[in-house]
Amino acid sequence: MRLFAVSTLLSLTLLYSPAGFGQDPLLKPVVDAAAEINTQAKNSQIRVETIADSTQERIQQYKQISRQIEGLEVYTAQLQKQTDNQNREKAELNASIDEVSVIERQITPLMLRMINSLDKFIELDVPFLPQERAERLASLEQLMERANVDVSEKFRRVMEAFQIEADYGRNIEAYNGSMTVNGQPQDVEFLRIGRLTLIYKTRDGSQMGLWDQQQQQWQELDQSYASDVREAIRIARKQLAPDLLMLPVPAPQSGSGV
To answer: How far from the centroid of its chain's Cα atoms is residue 61's Cα?
Structure first.
């Protein structure tokens, strides 16, 4: 209202002063003051518009930052969930590690007892493949002393040795070896049928022997079995198809399994 009134006064002053009445010295200060006021009003209007534009820009910036904050809050909440899950998994892993440590302390003595039992069993068993079985035992004993091998791998190897020994009782095998016959070392062929029968035959077939588990010694085998022994050796080597053979089989002893 004030700006409008001053502008009106200025207009009326300019309207009457130059045309009809001339420039009255008494009105000049009023005219100048009105012009100054009008100029200041324009400048004020410009500042108001500038401030309004700046305020609008800041409002837009505020809205944009608010949206960014909302997005960050959602992202932070998701990260917190992931962190909580990782902390739970970490706690479960630590608990599992503690349990593994307890199991490791318990299973190592068990494996040592198993190896010791296997050693005694082989010592009392039918004496086939002595070197191979002795090397397997020695390998297990060395393995147990190694710190860079996991307990799981040690246990697997021990169980593998037990499985191999168990399989010996369910298959037939022929292999070459050497033994002392009549005081002389000779190359011979061995025939093993499970753990029941262990026979040797010299290369020329002139001598054969059968292991007597009860007496813990070799007994001479009659030459009447020579043909069946040769055929059984060929079957064991997969050179012949399985067939019915007549071979000496001692009565099994109790407690002969692994």
So the answer is: 49
